[in-house]
Amino acid sequence: MSATEQPIVLELRNLHKQFGDTPIIRGADLQLRQGERMALIGPNGAGKSTLFNLISGRNAVTSGEILLHGRHIAGLSPFQVNRLGLARSFQITNIFPQLSVWENLRVAVLAAHGHRHAFWRRLAALDAINRRTDEVLRLCGLQGQREMPGGALGYAGQRALELGVTIAGGAGVLLLDEPTAGMSRDESGQALELIRRISDGKTLLLIEHDMEVVFGLADRIAVLVEGRVIACDTPAAIRSNRAVQEAYLGTLGVEFGS
Ligand code: ADP
Ligand code: MG
């Protein structure tokens, strides 16, 4: 099956969000297909993080629709949206500094499955939790820091751990908000590999400022300007899109048509 024939897993329809009298999201439309990696780019203040807050249930929408696997999710709580298979990471690191790397991941695995008490109380279930924790540890590349307190990791390590926490529940749709923010060139290169690995077989929507990461990873790129998606296309098409050039890429020195 080619990418365009894959089912749509996440869809935004004419989405609006106002804070007080100020419209921030102003009729955003977007469709993500199963298994694709999409980058969401756009100027600071365009509303990218707000869009994530709406999708993940953190902020209430003003109007419009959000569909996850064909189901309307606008109005659900972050917990409910997460239960339906969507996980998001934040711009800020969100881990327990005193707990070891492995314990941080185990807490996240438990949190994701803890509601099924009857099942998880059994001994076999503890085994399954530990195996899943080991698997997430491997995926986020922190085997060597297994026993280290989360707070003792370097910056890139903490971001990797945070990605581990995000994927621990096994969500099929991942929203990552600027996972390489504040990283050196080397670190973002490694983060790119990590994101590739953890999103393998999943559907990814990634807010990212580093254009090397964007063009190196994305199957498609959506461009958000003043609360609207002005273009959503392949990297090559986005690069040569004049409206995108004028609204955004030109200001970053990404060259027209190259
Ligand atoms: P981006 O992530 O694209 O840089 P944001 O979504 O963070 O942009 O912000 C878009 C605009 O919405 C900004 O002007 C910001 O100040 C405003 N905004 C975001 N969240 C809130 C909020 N909770 N209350 C009021 N204004 C907000
Ligand atoms: Mg943001």
UniProtKB/TrEMBL annotation:
<dbReference type="GO" id="GO:0005886">
    <property type="term" value="C:plasma membrane"/>
</dbReference>
<dbReference type="InterPro" id="IPR027417">
    <property type="entry name" value="P-loop_NTPase"/>
</dbReference>
<dbReference type="InterPro" id="IPR051120">
    <property type="entry name" value="ABC_AA/LPS_Transport"/>
</dbReference>
<protein>
    <submittedName>
        <fullName>ABC transporter family protein</fullName>
    </submittedName>
</protein>
<dbReference type="Pfam" id="PF12399">
    <property type="entry name" value="BCA_ABC_TP_C"/>
</dbReference>
<keyword id="KW-0067">ATP-binding</keyword>
<keyword id="KW-0813">Transport</keyword>
<dbReference type="GO" id="GO:0005524">
    <property type="term" value="F:ATP binding"/>
</dbReference>
<dbReference type="GO" id="GO:0016887">
    <property type="term" value="F:ATP hydrolysis activity"/>
</dbReference>
<dbReference type="InterPro" id="IPR032823">
    <property type="entry name" value="BCA_ABC_TP_C"/>
</dbReference>
<keyword id="KW-1003">Cell membrane</keyword>
<dbReference type="InterPro" id="IPR003439">
    <property type="entry name" value="ABC_transporter-like_ATP-bd"/>
</dbReference>
<keyword id="KW-0547">Nucleotide-binding</keyword>
<dbReference type="InterPro" id="IPR003593">
    <property type="entry name" value="AAA+_ATPase"/>
</dbReference>
<keyword id="KW-0472">Membrane</keyword>
<dbReference type="Pfam" id="PF00005">
    <property type="entry name" value="ABC_tran"/>
</dbReference>
<feature type="domain" description="ABC transporter">
    <location>
        <begin position="10"/>
        <end position="251"/>
    </location>
</feature>
